[in-house]
Each structure stands twice: as C-alpha cells, then as structure tokens.
Amino acid sequence: MLRWGIIGCGRIAHRFVQGLREVPGTELVLLWSRRAESINIFVEKYGGTACKTVEELLSSDIDVVYIATLPDSHAAYSISALNAGKHVLCEKPAAINLAGLEEILAVAKEKNLLFMEGMKPPFFPLYKKLKEYLITDPIGPVGYVRAGSSVADLSRDHPNFSYELIGGSIMQIGAYEAFLAIDWLGDIIKVQTMGRFADTGIDMFAIFQSEHQNGYAQLYSGFDLHGKGDALICGTKGNITIHKNWWNPVKATIDYMDGRVVELSEPFAAGGLNYEIEHFCTLINNGVTESPFITHQLSKQMISMLVEARTNIGLKFKGE
Questions:
Q1: How far apart are CA 106 and CA 25, in angstroms?
Q2: DSSP assignment, residue 162?
Q3: Which of 44, 279, 280, 320 has the fewest CB atoms lying closer than 10 Å?
Q4: Residue 215, CB half-sphere, CA atoms under 13 Å: how many?
Q5: Which of 88, 85, 83 is nearest to 8 (CA)?
Q6: What is the dihedral of CA 170, 175, 177, 181, to 10 degrees?
Q7: Is the pLDDT of residue 320 over 90?
Q8: Segment 234-276, tens digit of pLDDT
Q9: What span, in angstroms and rounded, lies between the C-alpha atoms of 145 and 181?
Q10: Residue in 300, 298, 294 with CA at minimum distance from that of residue 122
Q11: Is-contact 64 99, C-beta < 8 A?
C-alpha cells in the first residue's frame, strides 16, 4: 500500500484524488495547503488528515508526495519532499526554469528516489492506442506538429493571471504543447515567439513556433480567445488529427496519402489522471527512479522550450 500525501488542495488536487481512488494499492493519508480553508473542504470531501504545517506532512511515514500547488513553489516543495525521503509526483511545470529543475533532479538522484513531472496525455488510452497502431500502419517520419489551447472563460482572479504565482499562458498551458512537439519531433533546437501581455504582467496570448531535431511545430496558448483545442501531426505518408481536447484525448483520425481514413476512439475514466498515477505507482513498486515516458531529459526539454518562448517576448519572473 503506497501512502500518499498532497501538498496543495486546489482544483487539480480534487481531480487527482478522483484518479487516485481508481488505483489499487494506494491510500490518501495526509494533506496540507498554503490556504488553510481549502484543506478542511478537501478532507470533508475525500478523507485523509489535515496537517498544520508542511513539515508535519513531510516528517510522517507517507511514501509519496503529490505537489499540486502553483508553479512558484513546485521546486521548493519537490526538493523538501525528496530530502525527506519521499517519492515525488509534481504538477507541470516542475520548475520556473532549467536551473530549478536540475536542482530537483540532483536531489532525486542523490536520494535514489522517483521524481516525475505530471504530464497526463501519454498515459491516456487513446494516446497509447494511437502510438501502438502506428507501429504497424505508420504515417512515415513526422515532420510537423500544430497544436494549441486558448480558454476565454477564466475569471480574472484566477491564479493563472498572477505574475507572482508564475502565471501566464506559456507556463500554464504551453507545457502541454511543448510536450506534444517534443514527443513527436524530438529535442528542441530553437523557438520563435510573439505574444501580448495582460496588465498583470503575464502573457495573455502567445504563438510560438519551434524547430526540433526532426521537424517544426506551430503552437499557441492563451486566455482571451476561444481556441479549438485539437492537434495536427503530419508525416510523409499521412497525418493525424487528435480531436479536442487533445490533452484529454478520446478520438483521433488518421488520413493516409493513399486515401484511407482510420478512426480511433477510446474513452477514459475518472478524469484521466488515474492512468498517470498508475504508471507512477508501478515505477515505485518496481524500484524505478525515472519514468521511461516522462523522462528527466523530456522535462528538461519542456522547461527549456517554455523559458525560451517567454524570454523571446520579454517575460521573466522574479529572481531570474
């Protein structure tokens, strides 16, 4: 039985616990949040025991910590949890920049513990089904990816608009697009970005195109336009559309150059985070300290891409 503690009791933590309940051999034990009022609501709804301090949570006998705070504190809590001997699953982006991520990974290596950045798409049944299908019926080498997400219905008091909490569309949404581009096109070579700012100092909308080892990507992220949320992946023999919302994938269409069209569909359960959690638990039970899917190198590539994208438009956070 893997005993879990959660740092942060916001929206994503609620979805996480819904997924955790679907994974055998797990138990929600302890919770702590910077916002004390959110802990009581969480415990009343899902169980577990509220901690008065993060130190109380980390000094307990739990095995794993899920970090569900906002990005401003991801690195600090990850390092504290690893130093306390806990495996860590941390929401994306795992750090503000590459230096912060490398510090986390150094501690994880020293302590011989599993650290993984939360990135759910590759574990969804549809995404796995698509990858498996392409082994026997490929679209040829992939050379272009187009994807994005823009959500125009967020309240302006949402933390995504906070400069201090590392908000902005690139850091809050762009991590998904960065993953997709790197997963299909390989390591990043360079990024070009255009973007506009909100009065809070964060990027409200950004479009960034990137060159990779195997091709090019055109990506967007935003908070004031209603984006479609699908993804296009192009190879030499065909293309793939992962229908909206591609980061919670249910359906994909493969169009081949010879005229064939293949439709793939696969529903997901419990909000979808259960698949990522199950993978993470399997790694712990097998004594593995790095995911073969969300590798440490992939996390380095993703944060490097995001940092270059926002640096291009002049967005830096305090301390950088």
A1: 29
A2: -
A3: 44
A4: 19
A5: 88
A6: 120
A7: no
A8: 999 999 999 999 999 999 999 999 999 999 999 999 999 999 9
A9: 6
A10: 294
A11: no
Q: What are phi and psi of 309, to 5 degrees?
A: -60, -45
Using the Cα atoms of residue 203, residue 304, residue 294 and residue 219 in order, give the sign of their dihedral. Answer: positive
Indicate the helix (H) or strand (E) that contains 80.
Answer: helix 74-83
What distance in Å separates the CA atoms of residue 245 and residue 248, rounded to the nearest whole number?
5
Look at residue 319 and tell me whether its pLDDT is greater than 90.
Answer: no
125-140 per-position pLDDT tens digit: 999 999 999 999 999 9
Q: What pLDDT, in 10s, does the model give residues 172-204?
A: 999 999 999 999 999 999 999 999 999 999 999
How far from 308 is each of 127, 139, 168, 210, CA to CA, in Å?
Answer: 27, 30, 14, 10
Q: Give the separation between CA 31 and CA 40, rounded to whole angstroms.
A: 10
Distance, CA of 210 to chain centre: 19
What's the sign of the alpha-carbon dihedral 109, 76, 187, 182?
positive
Residue ranges of E strands in the chain: 2-7, 26-32, 49-50, 64-67, 87-90, 115-117, 142-150, 188-197, 203-212, 215-222, 231-235, 238-242, 251-256, 261-265
Q: d(Cα 251, Cα 151) in Å, to the nearest integer?
A: 21
Per-residue pLDDT tens for 204-224?
Answer: 999 999 999 999 999 999 999
Cβ atoms 241, 231 nearer than 8 A? yes
What is the rounded radius of gyration, in angstroms, for the C-alpha atoms of the chain? Answer: 19
